[in-house]
Design goal:
Blueprint lengths: L7 H10 L7 H30 L1 H5 L3 E6 L5 H8 L3 E13 L5 E9 L10 E3 L4 H5 L7 E4 L1 H6 L7 E4 L2 E11 L3 H4 L6 E5 H5 L10 E8 L6 H11 L6 E4 L5 H39 L1 H9 L4 H38 L13 H28 L2 H6 L10 H19 L4 H32 L5 H11 L4 H4 L1 H32 L3 E6 L4 H12 L7 E5 L1 E8 L2 E2 L17 E5 L9 E4 L11 E5 H6 L7 E6 L2 E11 L12 E3 L11 E5 L3 H14 L4 E4 H40 L1 H13 L4 H38 L8 H27 L3 H7 L1
Parallel strand pairs: 3-8, 5-7, 15-20, 17-19
Antiparallel strand pairs: 1-9, 1-10, 2-3, 2-6, 2-9, 4-7, 5-8, 6-7, 11-21, 11-22, 12-21, 13-14, 13-15, 13-18, 16-19, 17-20, 18-19
Length: 842
């Protein structure tokens, strides 16, 4: 059998590769780091998505669900829904819970029937079954109670406690419910009781805040989405909120998408930052190969042979770097699953998923091509005479390699945009990274030019350090863009985190109420004001505000039925759900009016409404237009008299809709109130209201803010750790720059020694050079971080801008110190070699 000889380029490349990858360690590390970050982000997100999909029925509690607010299902609605399959009905309301010995706490009561749950299982401690836990004993109903509430009220299994008008007995600790994730964030701890017990409590009466949900187990083969649409079509005025198992937890799914995008973007930025390390490693390797390349060219080798020889080596090593990154990225989620166990808030199915790994691998290969082909093009185009003399490289040729590098760069950006959940946001972020990278590269060159001009004003080691900074092998050209990009990402994360954390821990406590009170009876509103005044003193509009409260749904705008799909997604919530509203005669302080005029206090006539300007603009509404709102079973058409900016986190009437009082004249509306008071007053008022107004719900905003701040701080730690990957990429590039210039630095140090320079003078020169690079790159990175963080905090989150200067200064000091340390390492490596061998070898 005949054998076919391998092409010359392949044989030469194989021979070179057998000598090892010593010159490509930085190349491999930079590629592996970025690929691992992208692969880990994608694999973890896919594990959560698959976990959600595998437990969709359990998460929803069935195949299909219908929810309504502040009313019960009609007989006709129940009949139509019951025909779909097996059903279970539940209801929810809030009440204040109080133990004989313990604190008072707002709880979320949930009443369930005997068929609950249709899918999954309720996890309890202290009772053999849910039916046993909720059964009546000695004339008192049982309850399954979340451990957080039991700890707060100092309860144990068997103890009695009050919840609104109910006396309940703790029969079990409620560990989890199968449909808990689909309900989203809970303001208060959960108490599970029977539906008939909740029905007779009075908490589900019209005018209060309550909800009802029915979950359905459909027969096999029936499409849940089609079934839901059929019920909606049959009852168009019911305003059901419909969920099906195909989208059981949309909030969690969106969070996973955004988390993958954010972490993947950090990985991509690390890959881009490490691209300079890739380019530097290739350039350094080709520099060591210059004599061999010159000999090959002198012997008649074509440029294509030079290109193919080194392209094969780079390709093999790029595949090796990508493989290492994929192995680490695939293993990271598996390790996370083993460490977290069952403590994760979202179900996850950890295993190796091909698509996230394939995407990360493609990112790595495109990055390797984009950053390694340019140095290869220069080496191929440089004539043999220049290579023998070690003259400067040729200008960048417009050839196949350059076209390939540009194409790979464009492919990198296109892949990032195409695979992002929000392509526009991805395009903006990619453009931002590209602009930042260009600015940092220009800054590095500017720093070198400035050092050239300034060095004449200095003497001794400082002059030598500035000369090195201005030279062709300066770290300002190679390392400063990557270091600056890493610092920019880290500072952006730190600034966003500090501003949002300050919002929930500092700004919000000053501007928001400390307490919120709901379910204040209309006939005892003035008595309630008296109890508050007995604790706070004479109230003022700045410290206490009570307002009528109702809920309603916008069903028509400008006389036409609402189509939520025509409303901007950011404000669609106001048109496909019940929203809170109030009635006020006089314009409140700091009303935030941006258009129109408030009605007269004695207004009588057609209903007038003040509307949140953002909600109005989302639906194309302006002053003078009309909206129709379903309130307490009545359809009320009102003219928009005022558009106002609503500060939902501030102290004031934070309602999307405020009507004139004549609109609901005669309606027996309950009230809500907000108050600013100290911690001691809060405790006293809570006790007095428990004695005189047990049916009033008391919400501690301060407590909620403290919990939010603690959670946000833990999340921010994880995000900072992820962003530090980009900083590590910058350090790798710095290490690559030091390694690439080691030979030149050794020759430089040897020459200085021969000319009489002392060891300390050489060390100081290197500290000046690298310290300047770290300070310049770090400062530029912090400024870019400011530019990226400000619009996110102010425009996206609508929070107040505040700066954690200690964190910023720590970042700047860290960048400068680490880069200076790199200079000391470079100097130590150069000084460790004897001058004679170094100079003879050159």
């Amino acid at each position: 059998m005949a054998s076919f000889p391998l092409p010359l380029a392949v044989r030469l490349a194989a021979r070179e590769l057998r000598s090892g990858v010593r010159g490509f360690r930085i190349f491999l590390a930079c590629l592996a780091l970025g690929v691992a970050a992208i692969a880990a982000a994608g694999s973890t997100a896919e594990a959560f998505r698959q976990g959600l999909a595998s437990q969709a029925r359990e998460i929803l509690g069935g195949d299909l669900s219908f929810s309504i607010e502040n009313r019960d299902f009609t007989r006709e609605e129940r009949s139509a829904i019951d025909r779909l399959g097996q059903t279970t009905y539940s209801a929810g309301a809030r009440a204040m819970a109080e133990a004989p010995i313990g604190d008072r706490r707002l709880v979320s009561l949930r009443g369930v029937d005997e068929r609950f749950p249709l899918a999954g299982a309720v996890k309890l401690e202290g009772a053999p079954s849910l039916a046993s836990a909720l059964a009546d004993r000695d004339g008192l109903p049982g309850a399954a109670v979340e451990p957080a509430l039991m700890d707060r009220l100092n309860l144990k299994v068997g103890d009695r406690f009050e919840a609104g008008t109910l006396t309940l007995v703790v029969r079990a600790r409620l560990i989890s419910e199968p449909d808990g994730l689909s309900r989203g964030f809970a303001l208060a701890p959960r108490v599970l009781i029977r539906s008939d017990v909740l029905d007779r409590s009075g908490l589900l009466a019209p005018g209060g805040l309550s909800s009802r949900t029915v979950r359905i187990a459909l027969p096999p083969g029936q499409d849940p989405r089609a079934a839901g649409q059929a019920i909606q079509k049959a009852f168009p005025d019911a305003h059901f909120r419909v969920r099906d198992r195909l989208d059981a937890a949309p909030g969690a799914r969106r969070l996973i998408d955004q988390l993958e995008y954010f972490l993947g973007f950090i990985g991509l930025a690390s890959l881009v930052a490490g691209g300079l390390g890739v380019a530097g490693a290739v350039s350094a390797y080709l520099s060591t190969r210059e004599p061999a390349i010159a000999v090959l060219k002198a012997l008649g080798a074509k440029s294509s042979l030079i290109r193919d020889l080194h392209l094969i080596q780079i390709s093999v090593l790029a595949l090796l770097g990508v493989a290492i990154g994929l192995a680490v990225g695939a293993a990271a989620p598996l390790i996370l699953g083993q460490m977290a166990g069952s403590s994760l808030p979202i179900p996850a199915l950890f295993k190796v998923y091909p698509w996230p790994l394939a995407k990360a691998g493609l990112f790595g290969l495109l990055a390797a091509a984009a950053f390694s082909l340019i140095p290869l093009a220069r080496a191929r185009a440089t004539p043999p005479s220049a290579l023998f003399r070690r003259a400067p490289k040729a200008r960048l040729p417009l050839g196949l390699e350059t076209a390939g590098a540009v194409g790979a760069g464009l492919g990198l950006a296109a892949l990032a945009v195409a695979t992002a959940p929000t392509p526009m946001a991805a395009a903006i972020m990619i453009a931002g990274v590209a602009i930042a990278f260009g600015l940092l590269a220009a800054l590095g060159r500017g720093a070198a030019l400035l050092a050239e001009r300034v060095r004449g004003l200095t003497r001794g080691p400082a002059k030598l350090g500035l000369a090195n900074l201005a030279g062709p092998g300066s770290a300002a050209h190679t390392a400063s863009p990557a270091i600056g990009l890493g610092v920019a990402l880290l500072s952006c994360v730190v600034l966003i985190q500090s501003a949002l954390l300050a919002q929930v821990s500092d700004v919000a406590p000053r501007t928001a109420p400390a307490m919120v009170f709901t379910e204040i009876p209309a006939d005892r509103a003035e008595a309630f004001d008296g109890v508050v005044a007995s604790v706070m003193g004479p109230p003022s509009p700045e410290t206490y505000l009570r307002m009528p409260f109702a809920t309603g749904r916008i069903i028509a705008v400008k006389g036409k039925p609402v189509d939520p799909q025509t409303v901007k997604p950011s404000q669609r919530w106001a048109f496909d759900n019940d929203i809170t509203l109030s009635l006020l005669a006089k314009e409140p302080k700091d009303a935030g009016v941006v258009a129109g005029r408030w009605w007269r206090a004695d207004h009588v006539g057609s209903p007038q409404v003040a509307m949140n300007v953002e909600v109005a603009e989302a639906a194309g509404l302006k002053v003078g237009d009309t909206i129709t709102v379903l309130i307490l079973g009545r359809e009320i058409e009102a003219r928009i008299a005022v558009l106002r900016k609503v500060d939902f986190g501030g102290f004031g009437p934070n309602f999307s809709l405020i009507f004139d009082p004549a609109t609901l004249d005669g309606a027996d509306l309950r009230s809500v109130a907000i108050a600013r008071l100290g911690r001691e007053q809060e405790a006293i008022l809570t006790r007095r209201l428990g004695e005189q107004f047990p049916g009033v719900n008391v919400i501690s905003v301060r407590e909620q803010l403290d919990a939010a701040a603690s959670l946000f701080d833990r999340l921010a730690l994880a995000v900072r750790g992820a962003a530090a990957v980009a900083g590590l990429a910058g350090l790798l590039v710095l290490a690559g720059a030091i390694a690439a210039g080691a030979r030149a630095r050794a020759r430089e140090a040897a020459t200085l020694k021969v000319l009489g320079a002392t060891r300390s003078q050489i060390l100081i020169a290197y500290v000046v050079e690298y310290g300047a690079v770290g300070l310049i790159a770090g400062s530029a990175g912090v400024l870019l971080g400011f530019a990226a963080a400000w619009p996110v905090v102010v425009k996206v989150f609508e929070a107040r801008w505040s700066v954690d200067w200690s964190g910023v200064l720590l970042l700047l000091a860290g960048a400068t110190s680490l880069t200076t340390l790199g200079g000391l390492i470079a100097a130590s490596l150069a000084l460790s070699q004897r001058p004679a061998p170094v100079l003879r070898g050159d």
